[in-house]
Amino acid sequence: MVNEKHNGNLLVHLGAKLQAYPEELLRQRRGHDGQPEYLIQWSIVSLEERAAGGSSDSSAETKPENISMWMSAEEVCASCPALLGKRRLEGQWAKEEKAASPFAADVPLDEASLLEMKADVRSLVQRAGRQMAESGAPESSILNTIHVLSAYASIGSLAGAFKETGALDLLMKMLCHKEKQIRRSAGKMLRALASHDAGSWAYVLLSLSQQDDIEQ
């Protein structure tokens, strides 16, 4: 998954032949925490359609699929600042991120420490995968692993390690878990990762939206 730009907004690769990009701001509302939320329409198009440039008969027959998602101000700032006004959002996002996590400053890591922490991420992702697969695994054990992973996810230098270890696919399973607390903790972990890598956030949520059994 490579982050690219489309008209100043994030372009997300979904699988081998699909791409998605935020296209339009539809609505605004006040969320449960009192902060504004924005309904963003995402367009999902095939690589063949984009390559055709919209001029061929085949692309005219295949209209882009649209998915609408509610996004917080920081998510809009990271994914599609052009839809709302980047300068106003950046100030708000910076204040929230500064107070959100002790790792927000993201102190640069030396190479040895980075390698060790990447190995930790790989081990933790594998452990979480085993715990999720075990039918009788206690919820507390899974939650403890997610909490530790969330701390690592807050460090920007480790964003690549989460992609390499399959953590994004694991996150999708956690967000669909029957236990509400696991879903909430997975959501916090995804937000921690998204504070440094908006592409990961968009990839997970847009991929989930493609599943027929997932409520929008």
From TrEMBL:
Alphabetized InterPro entries for the sequence: CUL7/CUL9_N, Cullin
Domain of life the protein comes from: Eukaryota
Residue ranges constituting the CUL7/CUL9 N-terminal domain according to the UniProt record: 6-93
Pfam family membership, one: CUL7_CUL9_N
Coiled coil: none
Protein name per its UniProtKB record: CUL9 protein
